[in-house]
Amino acid sequence: MTDSVPFQRIGVVGAGAWGTALANAAARAGRDVILWARDPEHAAQMSATRANERRLAGVPLEPAVRPTADLADLGDADAILLVAPAQAVRSVAGALAPALGAGVPVVNCAKGIERDTRAFLSDAIAAVLPGRPAAVLSGPSFAEDVARGLPTAVTIAALDEDLAQRLCAALSGGAFRLYHSTDVRGVEIGGAAKNVLAIAAGVCVGMGLGASAQAALVARGFAELRRFARAWGGRDDTLMGLSGLGDLVLTCGSAQSRNFALGLALGRGEQPPAKLAEGAFTASALVAMARERGVEMPISEAVEAVVEGRVSASQAVDALLARPRKPEA
Q1: The overall pTM is greater than 0.90
Q2: Is a pLDDT exceeding 70 seen at residue 33?
Q3: Residues forming the active site
Q4: How many degrees, rounded to 5, is the angle at CA 277 between CA 254 and CA 129?
Q5: By C-alpha distance, which of 4, 62, 5, 26 is closest to 171?
Protein backbone atom coordinates (compact mmCIF):
# COMPACT_ATOMS: atom_id res chain seq x y z
CA MET A 1 0.00 0.00 0.00
CA THR A 2 1.31 3.48 -0.87
CA ASP A 3 0.75 6.87 0.74
CA SER A 4 0.80 8.88 -2.50
CA VAL A 5 -2.61 10.41 -1.71
CA PRO A 6 -3.18 10.94 2.02
CA PHE A 7 -6.85 11.96 1.69
CA GLN A 8 -6.44 14.54 4.42
CA ARG A 9 -9.24 16.77 3.08
CA ILE A 10 -12.59 14.97 2.76
CA GLY A 11 -15.62 16.52 1.09
CA VAL A 12 -19.01 15.18 2.17
CA VAL A 13 -21.76 16.02 -0.30
CA GLY A 14 -25.14 15.90 1.40
CA ALA A 15 -26.02 17.18 4.88
CA GLY A 16 -28.72 14.71 5.76
CA ALA A 17 -28.41 12.39 8.75
CA TRP A 18 -26.07 9.96 7.00
CA GLY A 19 -23.89 12.66 5.48
CA THR A 20 -23.55 14.35 8.86
CA ALA A 21 -22.69 11.04 10.51
CA LEU A 22 -19.98 10.29 7.96
CA ALA A 23 -18.60 13.82 8.30
CA ASN A 24 -18.25 13.28 12.05
CA ALA A 25 -16.66 9.87 11.52
CA ALA A 26 -14.11 11.26 9.05
CA ALA A 27 -13.28 14.08 11.45
CA ARG A 28 -12.71 11.60 14.27
CA ALA A 29 -10.32 9.76 11.96
CA GLY A 30 -8.23 12.92 11.81
CA ARG A 31 -9.46 14.33 8.50
CA ASP A 32 -10.39 17.92 7.68
CA VAL A 33 -14.00 17.78 6.49
CA ILE A 34 -16.13 20.06 4.31
CA LEU A 35 -19.85 19.21 4.71
CA TRP A 36 -21.90 20.54 1.80
CA ALA A 37 -25.60 21.36 2.21
CA ARG A 38 -27.78 22.32 -0.74
CA ASP A 39 -29.62 24.99 1.28
CA PRO A 40 -27.43 27.99 2.29
CA GLU A 41 -29.64 28.63 5.32
CA HIS A 42 -29.10 25.06 6.50
CA ALA A 43 -25.33 25.41 6.14
CA ALA A 44 -25.41 28.71 8.05
CA GLN A 45 -27.46 27.17 10.86
CA MET A 46 -25.01 24.28 11.19
CA SER A 47 -22.09 26.68 11.27
CA ALA A 48 -23.75 28.79 13.95
CA THR A 49 -25.05 26.01 16.19
CA ARG A 50 -22.36 23.38 15.47
CA ALA A 51 -25.14 20.82 15.05
CA ASN A 52 -27.48 19.56 12.33
CA GLU A 53 -30.76 20.00 14.17
CA ARG A 54 -32.79 19.51 10.98
CA ARG A 55 -31.54 15.98 10.33
CA LEU A 56 -29.68 14.70 13.39
CA ALA A 57 -30.90 16.57 16.43
CA GLY A 58 -28.83 16.44 19.59
CA VAL A 59 -25.59 15.31 17.93
CA PRO A 60 -22.88 18.01 17.83
CA LEU A 61 -20.65 18.43 14.81
CA GLU A 62 -17.01 17.54 15.35
CA PRO A 63 -14.69 20.58 15.42
CA ALA A 64 -12.99 19.57 12.15
CA VAL A 65 -16.30 19.63 10.21
CA ARG A 66 -16.92 22.86 8.28
CA PRO A 67 -20.41 23.29 6.74
CA THR A 68 -20.80 25.09 3.43
CA ALA A 69 -23.37 25.61 0.69
CA ASP A 70 -20.79 26.43 -1.99
CA LEU A 71 -19.73 23.51 -4.19
CA ALA A 72 -16.56 25.40 -5.07
CA ASP A 73 -15.37 24.82 -1.48
CA LEU A 74 -15.01 21.14 -2.40
CA GLY A 75 -12.35 21.96 -4.98
CA ASP A 76 -9.49 21.23 -2.58
CA ALA A 77 -10.90 17.89 -1.42
CA ASP A 78 -8.66 14.84 -1.78
CA ALA A 79 -11.71 12.54 -1.83
CA ILE A 80 -15.48 12.96 -1.92
CA LEU A 81 -18.14 11.06 -0.01
CA LEU A 82 -21.30 11.41 -2.10
CA VAL A 83 -24.26 11.07 0.27
CA ALA A 84 -27.26 11.90 -1.91
CA PRO A 85 -30.51 9.93 -2.25
CA ALA A 86 -29.93 7.07 -4.67
CA GLN A 87 -32.20 8.49 -7.37
CA ALA A 88 -30.37 11.84 -7.21
CA VAL A 89 -26.80 10.50 -7.28
CA ARG A 90 -26.31 11.08 -11.01
CA SER A 91 -27.54 14.69 -10.97
CA VAL A 92 -25.60 15.63 -7.83
CA ALA A 93 -22.44 14.01 -9.20
CA GLY A 94 -22.87 15.99 -12.41
CA ALA A 95 -23.17 19.23 -10.45
CA LEU A 96 -19.87 18.39 -8.75
CA ALA A 97 -17.95 18.06 -12.00
CA PRO A 98 -16.74 21.68 -12.30
CA ALA A 99 -15.39 21.67 -8.73
CA LEU A 100 -13.43 18.40 -8.72
CA GLY A 101 -9.90 17.95 -9.90
CA ALA A 102 -8.81 15.04 -12.07
CA GLY A 103 -8.31 11.77 -10.23
CA VAL A 104 -10.28 12.71 -7.11
CA PRO A 105 -12.09 9.56 -5.98
CA VAL A 106 -15.84 9.76 -5.42
CA VAL A 107 -17.26 7.32 -2.87
CA ASN A 108 -20.96 6.60 -3.28
CA CYS A 109 -22.63 6.23 0.12
CA ALA A 110 -26.22 5.72 -1.09
CA LYS A 111 -27.86 2.31 -1.41
CA GLY A 112 -29.97 1.72 -4.48
CA ILE A 113 -30.26 1.25 -8.24
CA GLU A 114 -31.41 3.95 -10.64
CA ARG A 115 -35.06 3.31 -11.30
CA ASP A 116 -35.26 4.78 -14.80
CA THR A 117 -31.95 3.56 -16.25
CA ARG A 118 -31.44 0.42 -14.09
CA ALA A 119 -27.86 1.57 -13.64
CA PHE A 120 -25.76 0.73 -10.62
CA LEU A 121 -24.79 3.93 -8.83
CA SER A 122 -21.05 3.47 -9.35
CA ASP A 123 -21.72 3.34 -13.09
CA ALA A 124 -23.88 6.47 -12.92
CA ILE A 125 -21.05 8.33 -11.17
CA ALA A 126 -18.47 7.11 -13.68
CA ALA A 127 -20.67 8.29 -16.55
CA VAL A 128 -20.88 11.91 -15.37
CA LEU A 129 -17.48 12.16 -13.63
CA PRO A 130 -14.99 10.54 -16.02
CA GLY A 131 -11.46 10.41 -14.69
CA ARG A 132 -12.58 10.32 -11.06
CA PRO A 133 -12.46 6.77 -9.66
CA ALA A 134 -15.81 5.60 -8.28
CA ALA A 135 -15.90 3.66 -5.01
CA VAL A 136 -18.73 2.54 -2.74
CA LEU A 137 -19.25 2.50 1.03
CA SER A 138 -21.89 0.20 2.48
CA GLY A 139 -22.66 -1.94 5.48
CA PRO A 140 -24.78 -2.23 8.64
CA SER A 141 -24.93 1.31 9.95
CA PHE A 142 -27.52 3.66 11.36
CA ALA A 143 -26.67 7.34 11.07
CA GLU A 144 -27.20 8.18 14.72
CA ASP A 145 -24.92 5.34 15.86
CA VAL A 146 -22.11 6.50 13.59
CA ALA A 147 -22.61 10.18 14.40
CA ARG A 148 -22.39 9.51 18.13
CA GLY A 149 -19.27 7.40 17.75
CA LEU A 150 -20.83 4.05 18.63
CA PRO A 151 -19.00 0.95 17.33
CA THR A 152 -19.79 0.38 13.64
CA ALA A 153 -18.11 -1.60 10.85
CA VAL A 154 -18.70 -1.10 7.13
CA THR A 155 -17.04 -1.98 3.81
CA ILE A 156 -15.46 0.33 1.26
CA ALA A 157 -14.87 -1.07 -2.23
CA ALA A 158 -12.96 0.17 -5.27
CA LEU A 159 -11.75 -1.68 -8.35
CA ASP A 160 -8.23 -0.49 -7.53
CA GLU A 161 -7.22 -2.37 -4.37
CA ASP A 162 -4.61 0.24 -3.43
CA LEU A 163 -7.26 2.98 -3.59
CA ALA A 164 -9.65 0.91 -1.48
CA GLN A 165 -6.93 0.38 1.14
CA ARG A 166 -6.00 4.06 1.26
CA LEU A 167 -9.61 5.20 1.58
CA CYS A 168 -10.11 2.62 4.29
CA ALA A 169 -7.10 3.90 6.21
CA ALA A 170 -8.16 7.54 5.83
CA LEU A 171 -11.71 7.04 7.11
CA SER A 172 -11.18 4.43 9.84
CA GLY A 173 -10.84 5.79 13.33
CA GLY A 174 -12.07 5.27 16.86
CA ALA A 175 -15.19 3.11 16.84
CA PHE A 176 -15.71 3.44 13.07
CA ARG A 177 -14.01 0.45 11.45
CA LEU A 178 -13.75 -0.06 7.70
CA TYR A 179 -12.85 -3.17 5.71
CA HIS A 180 -11.68 -2.85 2.11
CA SER A 181 -12.72 -4.82 -0.97
CA THR A 182 -12.36 -4.80 -4.74
CA ASP A 183 -15.86 -6.25 -5.23
CA VAL A 184 -17.64 -3.00 -6.07
CA ARG A 185 -20.60 -4.78 -7.65
CA GLY A 186 -21.14 -7.16 -4.74
CA VAL A 187 -20.96 -4.38 -2.14
CA GLU A 188 -23.44 -2.12 -3.92
CA ILE A 189 -25.84 -4.97 -4.71
CA GLY A 190 -25.90 -5.94 -1.03
CA GLY A 191 -26.87 -2.41 -0.05
CA ALA A 192 -29.49 -2.01 -2.78
CA ALA A 193 -31.22 -5.38 -2.50
CA LYS A 194 -31.41 -5.43 1.29
CA ASN A 195 -33.52 -2.24 1.18
CA VAL A 196 -36.19 -4.06 -0.81
CA LEU A 197 -36.05 -7.07 1.52
CA ALA A 198 -36.29 -4.82 4.58
CA ILE A 199 -39.66 -3.61 3.29
CA ALA A 200 -40.79 -7.24 3.16
CA ALA A 201 -39.61 -7.79 6.74
CA GLY A 202 -41.53 -4.73 7.87
CA VAL A 203 -44.69 -6.02 6.16
CA CYS A 204 -44.24 -9.33 7.98
CA VAL A 205 -44.05 -7.61 11.36
CA GLY A 206 -46.83 -5.15 10.53
CA MET A 207 -49.17 -8.03 9.72
CA GLY A 208 -48.27 -9.78 12.96
CA LEU A 209 -47.05 -12.94 11.24
CA GLY A 210 -44.64 -13.82 14.04
CA ALA A 211 -40.92 -14.18 14.62
CA SER A 212 -40.73 -17.55 12.82
CA ALA A 213 -42.13 -16.05 9.62
CA GLN A 214 -39.77 -13.08 9.89
CA ALA A 215 -36.74 -15.36 10.25
CA ALA A 216 -37.83 -17.46 7.27
CA LEU A 217 -38.37 -14.36 5.17
CA VAL A 218 -34.90 -12.99 5.98
CA ALA A 219 -33.26 -16.32 5.16
CA ARG A 220 -35.09 -16.74 1.87
CA GLY A 221 -34.56 -13.08 1.05
CA PHE A 222 -30.84 -13.53 1.54
CA ALA A 223 -30.93 -16.43 -0.93
CA GLU A 224 -32.52 -14.05 -3.46
CA LEU A 225 -29.87 -11.42 -2.81
CA ARG A 226 -27.06 -13.90 -3.39
CA ARG A 227 -28.60 -15.23 -6.61
CA PHE A 228 -28.92 -11.71 -7.97
CA ALA A 229 -25.38 -10.77 -6.98
CA ARG A 230 -23.91 -13.87 -8.64
CA ALA A 231 -25.73 -13.00 -11.87
CA TRP A 232 -24.03 -9.60 -11.89
CA GLY A 233 -20.56 -10.77 -10.88
CA GLY A 234 -20.71 -10.21 -7.13
CA ARG A 235 -18.68 -12.54 -4.92
CA ASP A 236 -20.19 -14.88 -2.34
CA ASP A 237 -17.68 -13.87 0.33
CA THR A 238 -18.78 -10.24 -0.07
CA LEU A 239 -22.44 -11.12 0.36
CA MET A 240 -21.67 -13.16 3.48
CA GLY A 241 -19.98 -10.10 4.99
CA LEU A 242 -20.91 -6.68 6.30
CA SER A 243 -22.36 -5.21 3.12
CA GLY A 244 -24.60 -8.23 2.49
CA LEU A 245 -25.72 -10.38 5.38
CA GLY A 246 -24.69 -7.83 8.00
CA ASP A 247 -26.72 -5.01 6.51
CA LEU A 248 -29.67 -7.30 5.82
CA VAL A 249 -29.84 -8.43 9.46
CA LEU A 250 -29.72 -4.84 10.72
CA THR A 251 -32.38 -3.39 8.46
CA CYS A 252 -34.77 -6.35 8.61
CA GLY A 253 -35.13 -6.09 12.36
CA SER A 254 -35.39 -2.43 13.33
CA ALA A 255 -37.87 0.38 12.76
CA GLN A 256 -34.85 2.73 12.65
CA SER A 257 -34.60 1.54 9.05
CA ARG A 258 -36.85 3.69 6.86
CA ASN A 259 -37.37 0.69 4.56
CA PHE A 260 -38.50 -1.51 7.44
CA ALA A 261 -40.74 1.33 8.69
CA LEU A 262 -42.34 1.62 5.24
CA GLY A 263 -43.08 -2.11 5.22
CA LEU A 264 -44.46 -1.88 8.75
CA ALA A 265 -46.96 0.75 7.62
CA LEU A 266 -47.94 -1.28 4.55
CA GLY A 267 -48.41 -4.41 6.66
CA ARG A 268 -50.65 -2.54 9.09
CA GLY A 269 -52.71 -1.07 6.27
CA GLU A 270 -51.58 2.44 7.15
CA GLN A 271 -50.75 5.31 4.85
CA PRO A 272 -47.05 5.05 3.86
CA PRO A 273 -44.77 7.92 4.85
CA ALA A 274 -44.85 10.88 2.48
CA LYS A 275 -41.13 10.45 1.80
CA LEU A 276 -40.72 6.91 0.52
CA ALA A 277 -37.65 4.88 1.47
CA GLU A 278 -34.96 4.00 -1.09
CA GLY A 279 -36.18 0.41 -1.42
CA ALA A 280 -39.51 1.59 -2.83
CA PHE A 281 -37.71 3.10 -5.83
CA THR A 282 -35.17 0.30 -6.19
CA ALA A 283 -37.73 -2.54 -6.19
CA SER A 284 -38.90 -2.12 -9.78
CA ALA A 285 -35.35 -1.86 -11.15
CA LEU A 286 -34.18 -4.84 -9.11
CA VAL A 287 -37.04 -7.04 -10.30
CA ALA A 288 -36.67 -6.00 -13.95
CA MET A 289 -32.92 -6.67 -13.90
CA ALA A 290 -33.47 -10.05 -12.25
CA ARG A 291 -35.93 -11.06 -14.96
CA GLU A 292 -33.48 -10.02 -17.66
CA ARG A 293 -30.98 -12.56 -16.34
CA GLY A 294 -33.45 -15.25 -15.30
CA VAL A 295 -32.96 -14.77 -11.55
CA GLU A 296 -35.87 -15.94 -9.41
CA MET A 297 -36.78 -13.33 -6.76
CA PRO A 298 -40.32 -13.97 -5.51
CA ILE A 299 -40.02 -11.89 -2.32
CA SER A 300 -38.67 -8.88 -4.18
CA GLU A 301 -41.42 -9.27 -6.79
CA ALA A 302 -44.00 -9.31 -4.00
CA VAL A 303 -42.56 -6.13 -2.52
CA GLU A 304 -42.68 -4.39 -5.89
CA ALA A 305 -46.31 -5.40 -6.38
CA VAL A 306 -47.33 -4.14 -2.93
CA VAL A 307 -45.39 -0.87 -3.23
CA GLU A 308 -46.89 -0.25 -6.69
CA GLY A 309 -50.38 -0.96 -5.31
CA ARG A 310 -51.13 -3.91 -7.59
CA VAL A 311 -51.82 -6.28 -4.68
CA SER A 312 -52.44 -5.95 -0.97
CA ALA A 313 -49.91 -7.12 1.61
CA SER A 314 -52.12 -10.06 2.55
CA GLN A 315 -52.52 -11.10 -1.10
CA ALA A 316 -48.73 -10.99 -1.54
CA VAL A 317 -48.21 -13.20 1.52
CA ASP A 318 -50.85 -15.68 0.33
CA ALA A 319 -49.14 -15.90 -3.07
CA LEU A 320 -45.74 -16.57 -1.50
CA LEU A 321 -47.15 -19.31 0.74
CA ALA A 322 -48.86 -20.94 -2.25
CA ARG A 323 -45.63 -21.30 -4.24
CA PRO A 324 -44.69 -24.88 -5.23
CA ARG A 325 -42.58 -26.82 -2.72
CA LYS A 326 -38.95 -27.25 -3.77
CA PRO A 327 -35.54 -28.15 -2.35
CA GLU A 328 -33.87 -25.43 -0.32
CA ALA A 329 -31.11 -23.77 -2.34
Answers
A1: yes
A2: yes
A3: 194
A4: 120
A5: 26
